[in-house]
Amino acid sequence: MTVTDTAASRLARLQAHTALLAQTLRGIEKEGLRVDAQGHLSRTPHPAGLGSALTNAYVTTDYSEALLELITGTHARVDSLLTELENTHRFVYSVLENETIWNQSMPAALPAEADIPIAWYGTSNTGMLKHVYRRGLAERYGKAMQCIAGVHYNFSLPDELWDILAPGSSDSRDQRSRGYIGLIRNFTRYSWLLMYLFGAAPALSRQFMGDNTSQLQTLGADTLYLPYATSLRMSDLGYQSKAQSQLKLCYNDLDTFLGRLYEAVTQPWPDYQAIGTHRNGEWIQLNTNVLQIENEYYSSIRPKRATGRCERPITALSQRGVQYVEVRCLDIDPYEPVGIAADTARFMDAFLLFCAASDSPYFTENGYCQRSADNFSLVVKEGRKPGLQLDRDGTAIGLPVWGHELLDQIAPYAALYDQAIGGDAYARALQAQRHKLDHADDTPSARLLSDLRDSGLSFHDYSLQRSRQHADTLRAQPLPSDVAAAYAEGVTQSRDEQARLEQNDEVDFDTYVAQYHAALKAPKST
Predict the structure, then answer these.
(1) Which domains does the chain possess?
(2) Pairing, β 67-71 against β 100-102
(3) Kind of pairing, strands 223-225 and 217-218?
């Protein structure tokens, strides 16, 4: 963009090309633990009826064998996106017998660390790489923390739209990447708003915290909480890492971001060196660096690019640029059977388009914005506190005041989606968020705490009860025969593909790991 270009002029150009917005693509990855009838973590293998967790495109596992991950394709409409997500849930429930999907971000009752099963992907080199990586996560962070779940929202704009937002570039790949990195900077500035509006994890089971309960208050014998928290999952009570805490990745440009990420996946860390890569002759982590692989970096949003087999994300991004962004801070919505509401998805679209089109100055603090990180941390732990003040460019401002100002700025982008698609669903989704800013008691986090108090149930018992209700809802309507047949075909194909991978490995696993590390190429910034 030129120096004289403004958010208003970019908005005007978008208004002249609204049809392109109908080509926006979004997809979802929704995690959920399998639990038994008592709400305890399942210790059974990934159900055979769901196919291969390694190669099924729709149902896989995340960290644990019991942590399902349901993946949609990309969709040009929110309605079809959520229909697919609902169908995948129904398919899973057609296979699960005496188990339920835990519809909460904070975990169910977990066994001892040693008894939490790490996800297994078969004996192929590809499958073993995924499994050993998860062994490394257990060594570095513990297994319990890896059982925290969320909803990932993937979002991309059509390439032609980047030329409208920032005309004049001769390199469409660089133009697109600059646009997505600018989006990420604005997301970093304003994502505290998402935690206030959609955070749904203000409480957890006492058992999950062990003896580390000093920061939390007690709600009954078995429940811990913070009175004004929106998402303990996204707080420092969630994913903690001394090694990662020193990472300050730069979002001023893609090359610098990739350079710092490259340093993290190639720089040894003393504590991990002390662990080593093998124990009793078996692999326990892929290397002893700050990060084993790129995906170990924990962040609220990531620039993404689809990769080929054995291709490293850094290499793919460096060579082909950013393809989409993955938003990772959304909690599972405990009030929705599939974990996310249509209003949430539509607001996310408008919010992300606003982030893409708005002025996005570089961060001056070596490419990192501590102020934005502090605002985010404050909202996840105290977001509903009356009179809460955030820091906007060095000036204190009330959360509701700033929130309404942001919604005023986002509203034209919601209107653009309504113009592109028809109807007023995006405007209504935005209006629903205004209500939450004026009525904190109607945020998901406040509703959950109110329900816990009113029901007298523990966090565990309440979450199990609601998860069962959602399971009943999803099981009540069987899949259409053609949809069920498509899922069944996917199961068969996934098994065949896993078998093919296991039969066709040409090198041993040690060699494969060495080749995988060698495939990491330093980006051009390093």
Answers:
(1) 7-518 (3.30.590.20)
(2) unpaired
(3) antiparallel
